[in-house]
Amino acid sequence: MTTQHFPQDFLWGAATAAYQIEGAVTEGGRGPSIWDTFSHTPGAVVNGDTGDVACDHFHRVSDDVRLMASLGLTSYRFSLSWSRIQPTGSGAANQAGLDFYRRLADELLEAGILPWATLYHWDLPQALEDAGGWPARDTAARFADYAYLAVSSLGDRITNWTTFNEPWCSSFLGYGSGVHAPGVQDGAASVRAVHHLLLGHGQALQAVRASTPDVNLGITLNLYAMAPASPSEADADAVRRIDGLSNRIFLDPVLKGEYPADVVADLAPVTDFSFVQPGDLETIKQPLDFLGINYYSRHVVAAPLPDAVAEPSSYPGSETVRFVHRTGVPVTDMDWEIDAPGLVETLRGVAENYPPVPLYVTENGSAFVDKVVDGEVDDPGRVDYFDQHLRACHAAIEAGVPLKGYFAWSLMDNFEWSWGYAKRFGMVYVDYETQERIPKSSARWYADVIRRNGLAAQ
Ligand code: IFM
After folding, report:
1. Upper half-sphere CA count for residue 27 (Cβ side, 13 Å)
2. In the chain, which stretches have pLDDT less than 70?
3. Does any ligand 1 atom lie closer than 6 A to the CB of residue 166?
4. What is the predicted pLDDT for the residue at 2?
5. What's the number of domains the chain is made of?
6. Could you tell me the residue range of the domain that residue 25 belongs to?
7. Taking Cα atoms as reference points, which of 193, 195, 167 lies closest to residue 279?
8. 60 CA from centroid of ligand 1 (Å)
9. Predicted local distance difference test score (pLDDT) of residue 3
10. For residue 275, which phi and psi values (nearest 5 degrees)?
């Protein structure tokens, strides 16, 4: 049987994020973040779950690194909790926080695993939210200071740094629909948040490059494949709108230094973009060493029905566009359509429509209902999902896309934000009562893919 091989230096990783796995929220001088506040707000998270303990990774780092090594991972993508490093989001660094990540990086390097750090995976220090959060311009400057502190302290051992993970979620879920922390429902504030997240990205890259020039810097965007529900012009326009608000509103400023004119026009009833100051877009468009793409699914959209009523939404100005479920298309436990061809489309779309930049799939994965039977967890649905999406990565590379690596989401089950612990995305099962880790069959399958640097031919 032949194998579909990946390039020799292809990176095989798995990803997590601080609030989703660390726990220990009051230890080591860590200050509160917006997710501590939000998860403790009655009704905000399914079952009232919080990240207080999560996977207790803070106390189990060494075991977890051994687990990664046993799977043969060549890289591990994790995020730093800003409020472990600056408990109130500004001022001097908290040494205990830096030490925690220094130790994690050292253990990874000893195990031959490349550490890949994300500076911000949604957990803004609460003190900065109290001062206005991402809708306030000053938060961008605070982020650049934090980035400078973190990278100048840890950049000797962590050489790959992502500024933001999925700024779409931080802005539109956090300040638009309010289903994520800080739970604000204000369309105009959500667009200001977009701009200040992007400005923070640009300012952080400038600050870090001036102090630590030898690190690789980029950003991770969650991009969606798009399709109209019908061939009608109205549905095509719905696709244009949602593609604009999901994908292009981030890709265009970061890679081309401009907001798309059609998106600015769509948003006119919500905001006039007067918060964009001269020079901002030049700051945002910094040279990138890589672009991270998180891909999970496709959006199938349709024009609003007559008399549709606008409600607080993650798509300001396009609230009444309908998201349609196609019949017969398999879905995950999140009810997200499984659409691997959409990953090829997404990767090719970025490679063909934007200036060249090395790409990484920094997240891709699926939630399924997993059960422990006789001490084992068999998850064929997840194996199939990974298999289809890795074949999509392979096809994209064959088509000339400069894809350099893949990170499975997630290394282990964890706190799935407003779903709490109700959804499991891990390749490793976590028993939250005992904190036992049980590699699922998908973990063994992935280890095999890594070992052979490729997929068995079909
Ligand atoms: O768990 C999240 C992760 O934090 C960001 N990307 C999507 C994942 C699944 O919802």
Report:
1. 11
2. 1-2
3. yes
4. 62
5. 1
6. 3-456
7. 195
8. 22
9. 81
10. -75, -10
Write the DSSP assignment of 167-182 as a string of letters. Answer: HHIIIIIIIII-SSTT
Q: Given this model, what pLDDT does residue 223 score?
A: 98
Residue with tokens 């349609």: 324
If one counts every other C-beta atom within 10 angstroms of the C-beta of residue 426, the result is 29
Centre of ligand 1 from the C-alpha of residue 361, in Å: 13
Task: Give the residue, out of 35, 407, 425, with the most ligand 1 atoms within 8 A of its beta carbon, to mutate for a pocket test.
Answer: 425
Separation between Cα atoms, residue 244 and residue 290, nearest integer Å: 22
CA–CA separation, 52 vs 49, rounded Å? 9
pLDDT at 458: 79
How confident is the model over 83-95, as pLDDT tens digits? 999 999 999 999 9
Q: What H or E segment, with its residue span, contains residue 340?
A: none
Taking the C-alpha atoms of residue 148 and residue 155, their distance in angstroms, rounded to an integer, is 10
- CATH number, residue 400: 3.20.20.80
Q: What is the predicted pLDDT for the residue at 369?
A: 98
CB 199 within 8 A of CB 137: yes
Residue type, 326: R
